[in-house]
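Record 1 of the preview.
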Amino acid sequence: MQPQSKVYILGGTQTDFARNWTREGLGLFDIFKEVLTDAVTQVGIEPAQIEVGHVGNFVGELFAHQGLLGGYFGHVYPELANLPTSRHEAACASGSMALLAAMSDLQAGHYGLACVLGLELMRNVPGQVGAEHLGAATWYGEEAQNCTYPWPHMFDLLAQEYDRRYGMDYESLNTIARINYDNARLNPNAQSRQWSFTPESFTANDTYNPIIEGKLRKSDCGQITDGAACVFLANEKIAKEYATKHGLSLRDIPYIKGWGHRSAPLLFAEKLRLSAQHPLIFPHIQQMVQDTLRRAGMQSVFELDGLETHDCFTVTEYMAIDHWGLTAPGKSWQAIADGHITRDGAFPINPSGGLIGLGHPVGATGIRMLLDCFKQVSGQAGANQLRKVDTMATFNVGGSATTCASFIVGR
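->
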């Protein structure tokens, strides 16, 4: 296989995930417009330089009755009225699919500069309605039938499977939640940055941390969030021109060193059947990790300096720890108990606050993760900046780990 050309990240931005856009009298287009115009300004490009647009969005039709979101570009900038665009859907991994498509465009030589934008409007409906809309990423009518909230139910099943195979350390889930909320307090865009907690908020206290589904409690659950993230990806020619214009060296601009993408059958029960004789619950995720490291020229996950991972629920992050090889299968609790995943630990996870602390506008999450990795390796993460970062990885999950994607960002 011939080595592929590098794809550079020129920069980007995200919206404030604490905002409720409906209460402001604003809608999906307003989110799109704000993040695009802010990204153009902050990165320092001209709209006319954008050659292709990719949009990540899961359920615009259900929450906002709106599809065909690529058509928004031309309403933001007249220069983009004839821009080739497409929209990508893979539930919570929709943003990563948009990134992969943009990478392919650049590496194929079709275009030189791509705008990748992910967004979701979800706080415009009652919570129960929103939960039902998001349940579209299960096999509708076949699973998540006997529950109030489909996704807490589905990921409680994952916790049950951990308990059945290895024994589940639920105290570790409380620690994951506390760490991510602590990190989010430092993030000026985090949905929960001004929230207040008591020590009982991260315990099995039914008053301060009530059960949502099964054994998963309030602190175990990610947020319903409005928001967007946007990044600009470029081929080497455009990146060099950008560097020269902004007084940079090409070596200063982060690029995507490796990537992975695997999928599994939609039904959670079928995933468990396929992995019954495997040490890990989701073998396809291990394959994705191996693909990502190999493409980055890395031999081990420990060559990374940290991970922005999918924690739609605390048990999802728990799963990421052993599936990325930080511990043996079923031993994720060890890395948590040892403090390895804290901001000052040996392998920081979610210094941004993650989905639990920062927020989870579904279509934006994969792009937001890449943006936070870009900020870390370029030293632009502000109060969330880690001490020493050369490479960071993302891990983005759609459905019950049906679609999984990752990127390694470095310089």
